[in-house]
Design brief:
The chain has 16 helices and six strands. The protein has one domain: ABC transporter involved in vitamin B12 uptake, BtuC (Orthogonal Bundle). The radius of gyration is 25 Å and the shape is globular. Strand 1 and strand 2 form a beta hairpin. Helix 4 crosses helix 11, helix 5 packs antiparallel against helix 6 and helix 12 crosses helix 13. A two-stranded antiparallel sheet has the order 1-2.
């Protein structure tokens, strides 16, 4: 009997531990979306090989979701320090515009050297933009939402100045490789995003950097007292976030072989913040989850695919996505689940008046 109670207690502890894991609910939501699409769309889960590379809806979700994964990855570290970066969309547009402008004006737009130079220029400018954000937040003391809002507005104008208000079209197979090409049958964008995620996880989880970032975001006063240089860490995470956004901008512009300073990366900062929140990272800073962020970005991209698959009218697309995101956040909220479970238990319990009224009736039946 004792062993049975021990096994039951162990099993109950494992269930509670699994239910409280931050990756459980995002994984279940993503699985539900994929299975729902599989029900309404024939062959949705089918992955095949065509023209020497993988194809299928799952491959498209991973390929088109790669830029969002990168932006959300940088946003995760910024949010972990109690900050926010609203300028990533403008950084995406600036990086794509700089790269396409350099390639289009080059005498050899198809050469690998030209593409690498264009990518280097875009990444260098993005690093400077991230440095400006980091200095404004860490050294000057400007609130993160205000500091990055400045670049969000001004950066979009800078992107349009670079493109002269026009869409710059490039014809370069080497540049198209970044966002729309394939390497060993796999989308190169997916491989690049996976490499960045793996490198970030290695640096933040195998070294003290991740712990220092969580310390600065979780308790700034205590981290300052123990001698942690928060200013340098804050600047570093904003530079890293800008670099991730720049790589995403290269992916987006290379996938369509053009740069649009007005629409490239538009509202991607909001999707990135939603991906971070869905992944389990709190906006109040502290502990962060890179795996949860990746799942959150895939959920957002799968949701966009679902909208087109189900034929949701374009005018109600954003409303539909908003309702689904709210439902996802409520489902993974421990406080909401506890309240819902408490109300269900209360509804099942008999009321005192019903119990008191039932006693005389039972006595009459016995008489």
């Amino acid at each position: 009997m004792t062993s049975q109670h021990t096994k039951a207690a162990t099993a109950g502890g494992l269930v509670r531990r699994a239910a409280g894991h931050r990756l459980l609910w995002p994984s279940l939501v993503l699985l539900t979306l994929l299975l729902g699409n599989a029900v309404f769309t024939d062959g949705f889960l089918t992955v095949g090989v065509r023209d020497g590379h993988l194809y299928g809806s799952l491959v498209d979700i991973a390929q088109f979701g790669a830029p969002l994964i990168l932006v959300a990855l940088g946003m995760t570290l910024v949010i972990a320090t109690r900050g926010i970066d609203l300028s990533v969309g403008s950084t995406v547009a600036i990086a794509g515009a700089l790269a396409c402008e350099h390639i289009a004006s080059s005498p050899s737009p198809g050469s690998v050297t030209t593409v690498l130079t264009a990518a280097g220029v875009a990444l260098g400018v993005a690093a400077v933009l991230g440095l400006v954000n980091g200095v404004l937040v860490s050294r000057v003391g400007v609130q993160p939402i205000v500091a990055t809002l400045i670049l969000m507005v001004a950066g979009r104008g800078v992107a349009q100045l670079i493109t002269d208000g026009q869409i710059i079209t490039v014809n370069s197979d080497a540049y198209h490789m970044i966002g729309g090409g394939y390497w060993f049958t796999f989308p190169f964008a997916v491989l690049l995003a996976a490499a960045v995620v793996a490198l970030t996880a290695l640096v933040t989880r195998r070294t003290a950097l991740g712990l220092l970032i969580e310390s600065v975001g979780g308790n700034p006063a205590a981290s300052r007292l123990v001698g942690i240089r928060a200013a340098g860490l804050l600047t570093l995470v904003y530079v890293f976030c800008a670099l991730c956004a720049a790589v995403a901008g290269l992916m987006i512009s290379s996938n369509v072989s053009s740069a649009d300073g007005n629409n490239a990366g538009l509202w991607i900062e909001l999707d990135a913040i939603l991906a971070v929140v869905i992944g389990g990272t709190a906006l109040t800073g502290g502990r962060f989850s890179l795996g949860g962020t990746v799942l959150g970005a895939l959920i957002i991209q799968t949701l966009s695919t679902t909208v087109y698959t189900l034929g949701v009218p374009p005018e109600t697309t954003l409303v539909f996505k908003a309702f689904v995101v709210i439902a996802v956040c409520l489902v993974q909220s421990p406080a909401f689940r506890a309240k819902a479970l408490r109300r269900r238990r209360t509804a099942r319990l008999p009321s005192p008046t019903t119990t008191a009224g039932a006693a005389p009736q039972q006595q009459e039946v016995r008489a």
